[in-house]
Write a structure and sequence with these properties.
- The chain has 187 residues and is α/β, with parallel strands linked by helices.
- It has a single domain, classed as Beta Polymerase, domain 2.
- Helices cover 44% and strands 13% of the residues.
- The chain is built from ten helices and seven strands.
Amino acid sequence: MLLRSREDIIRLIRADEWMMDILRASQSLNLPDWWVCAGFVRSKIWDTLHGFSERTPLSDVDFIYYDASNIDKAAEKQLEIQLKRMLPYVPWSVKNQARMHLINHIPPYLSSVDAISKFPETATALGLKLDDQDHIVLTAPHGIDDVLQMIIKPTPFFSACKDRLAIYEKRIIQKKLKDKWNRVTII
């Protein structure tokens, strides 16, 4: 399948029952500024571009939201339990982006999309959600060119700082993305 546009990506996701189940379960929590993001999106695109007939296993499915009124980590764990009850076969990872700056030792994020823009790689800085009419919404703060061209490079946030760039480089080695998708280019 050729993927050239946001619309192509959205059609691809819409046709994937597993991904749609995850988006619907996520939506049912009615949380503010929620997204399912990162490898959940990138892996589907790269699996498709590589012509894989089976999904590359995910270590987790990143569900994020932004709620400054409750930054207790225990609230995230409760949400993970709720999601696991709905879809027990999904390796959920729930994080409130209103508290993640404390963990990452950086200035506070302004929103979930702001947090996504500060993910390590541009090709992974992607998120999906459903709107009120069940339409898929795709956010890509750095665009979709890198994910479609299978280019791995740091986001401006990570390339702007030597310490963060070292985190990016370590992550690239640990994730072994080139081993999973041999056509990717790492910068």
